[in-house]
Amino acid sequence: MDFEYIYPIIVLFGSFAIMLAVGVPITFAIGLSSLFSILIALPPDAAISVISQKMTVGLDGFTLLAIPFFVLAGNIMNTGESPGAW
Question: Subcellular localization, per the record (predicted)?
Fold first, then answer.
């Protein structure tokens, strides 16, 4: 294997381990380490394109629609208007 392919993997795991050791929350450590490895593995224009496409595809799911409806149901139940509705 060429070092060119191993370098982004080393950066991915290395930056993740360093951020966890410093005390960065896991969600931010995962996001930032993957961002660093993508920026190293690809040219800047392609990296920005890949990141924006992955973010758009990640938000384009019908399962994410359940979250605001659960929040709405919780607000309705919290106000006391739900006994008449159920």
Answer: Cell inner membrane
